[in-house]
Here is the input.
Amino acid sequence: TDSMLGVPGLLEVVRAGNVAIANPLGSGVLETPALLKFLPKISRFLTGSELAIPSVSTWWCGDADDFDYVTKNINDLIIKSAIRHPNQPSIYGHTLNEKQQLNTLAMIKKQPHLYTAQSYIPGSVAPVWQDGGLQARSSILRAFTVSDQGHFAVMPGGLSRVSNGEKDTIVSNLSSSKSKDTWILASEPEKQTEQLSDKVILQNEVLQTNLPSRVVENLFWMGRYAERAELSTRLLRTLFKQMNGIDPLPAESRRLMLEMVSIQTGCLPGFTDADDALIDTPDSELVSIITDGNRPGSIKANLQAMINCGEQVKEMLSADTRIIINELRDHIHELDRAYTNGLPAAPEESLDSLVTSLLALSGLNHESMLRGLDWTFQEIGRRTERALQTATLLRSSLAKPLPAPQQQQVLESVLLSVEALISFRRRYRNRARVEYGLELLMLDGTNPRSLIYQINQLRKHLKKLPRNNLPTSGLSPENHLIIKSLNDIQLADLDALVQVDSSTQTRLPLEQLMTQLLEQLEQFTVFISDKYFDHTAGPHSLVENSWGSQ
Here is the structure.
């Protein structure tokens, strides 16, 4: 209980086998200086061979001949306690004057068995950075070995100590010296050679560079959160424009669009089971959907999650990308200030800068990142989330039929939120039919926000992943789901999708197709996660022991 090197009860824990110890209790006896004199004989007795490396010359003063040698050569020796003790520092004979030497010998003579002497070997000198420049300091290196199933391995490095002062020549753990870890990276100086094969690196070798699971998983989710935040923000901005327009929103359109916001963000129940009072005064719920960082699915929560993923892999991001991420942090604070007292006068304008920054982030990643596995996983995350968000939007907005004016208003709001309204009007003029909207948002391969475009991109990206469709394994589960989703979209009959079921008064075929696609895409993300993201590694012991069998 009086020890400064542990806690009471530690020995019992060791005996019970509940803790691993690199140096077993009692091994400190091997540091007894007096043992060094007898080390050659100990080696011959225990191993039958001489020491592989000669030990430092040591004399034990309990031996008469050794004491006589110490008396005559104290100026060239270091006097140490025979049994190592922290309160008895070594005495360097060359630092003593004649009187101090006589006093030291008299001290030894009283109890000679308590003292040993070793040859004094001047220490090395190493450069250190101090007071703004390089200075020479005395230094020593302490090496370590580790036992490994019957033999010992010398560690590639050790602990270096350097003296504090320029004139200090004694370096030890009792002399207030400074210590640093030392790593030895090679057994000889590295030769700077260049081979012809080093110059020719095939592209697939570059792309297959191993990346930690942590990196690709965070990039995957960074892409997903970015898409989630962007479409949610766009939809809210569209809602605010419609609510603050010259003509008031009809009650049916207002309720449906508010429900779309709750479903799209996942902030449920929200407006999905709201009474008329909440629909008429939705400000508090809308503020929560935007600024409540503790509410999963809110704009703020998605942005914070995306930023956190970016922080985990910031070494993979360009300087401009990090600037955009910092701007998004500022936008979050601006949102908090803007919505402190409820919805601002023009809430859609408060979201413009967010959308712009998210678009800039997407553009930087698309135009600046090398097409390696890091970019591929981020793109898979983006495309998967965009497909999920689009399918959710189509199901929540178009599955419920409305009268023609309100239906056109909702359809145009959907198209506006995905930046497709201008293309729609140019292609179809004023014929705002639901099947035309589905054609543009589902089947148009030239529309970078259509469902079929996302699925096609995912199919291309999957081909770049390792362990994908090995010759002996056939079609992988994730490829199977993507091909099935692609077929489901391509084989869809638009005229049948927009038919209203008489029993449910909904566009049941459309709702069923979107639900099926959502389930397949969610299962796709599970397969990607299980196959490429390592979630199995847990704590493990660095040292195996057999205490349990003893």
In short: Residues 196-209, 538-550 have pLDDT under 50 and may be disordered. The two ends are 27 Å apart (CA to CA). DSSP finds 21 helices and eight strands in the chain. Residues 213-243 form the longest helix (31 residues).
